[in-house]
Amino acid sequence: MWGAVLKIASSFVKKDKLVYGIIAVPLAFLFLLVFLGSAGTVIKHVPLAEPDQYRYYVDAAEMIKAETGIDVDWQQIIAIDAVLLEQDFSKSSLERALSYKWYFVRQETVEVECPADEKGGEEGGEPEKKCYETHYYGRPFDEVLSLLVSDGIIRPEQIPDIYDYLQFKISLDYTDDTGELFLSIQTNFQATERFFAWPLSSTTVRITSPFGMRLHPVTGVYSGHLGIDIAAEIGTPVFAIEEGVVIFSGYTTNGGNAIHIQHANGVVSKYLHLDSFLVRPGRMVSKKERIGSTGNTGRSTGPHLHFQIEVNGKPVNPISFY
Question: Choosing a second label site near 266 at 20 to 30 A (CA), which of 3, 110, 145, 243?
Fold first, then answer.
């Protein structure tokens, strides 16, 4: 966990100025402690993996079921790795996901009655043959974690962190048109009250384009995506994630109709491709106040909300706050 915090803090330091890291990283870390309340609340609930990295865990669960007939919740597997890898899913792989198989599944070899044509044991013949079958049984998740502790893979104090990644129900699916992967997150609004509110009222969030590097759907250029794209029909209400002051409300070439809100602690939230907006610059808004509606304006390939969070002018993954 501490490695993940330091990784976030280091993002506040430009690569050509790493000489100042000894000063900048601790300061950024202190900012995170103040802003998020405690180190224990930094980056939980949703694993920060790319859709293709999520696929490792989905595929692993499917392969385990094909071999053993046991349904394993892939989200439980990725929750373990979210803690062990400290959210660095560049270290994940299908082989790693499959390595947890025998923690989730117990196998037992039992003696069974042989088929009549295989029994043997007739007078003057071969001794009676013994036949065996392997049976598989799924383990309760608490037992899985206990075994991981016994084998020294996780520490007992990491178990609550693993459970934090199971507060939201996550599913992985493909878009109907392009066949690209997207995440669906079944939200729990009570769990997010410590952080920001969701910008949409829907309890299911379809993230069609995650934060980070991607192939731009319009330009075809591989470039950084500064926020997340959430699928939503035109006219879906959009809400302020936290109280703050509207610093921009208008049209932009790429983002179409957009709203920017300044919050405390150097945080700015941005809502792009809107159909309409209900607030103007200078307006103080409250948390969960409706500020506009989703649309398809600007450089967009379909109705959605581009949701972006910046901290001290630097874009960060919005999912980090949920």
Answer: 3
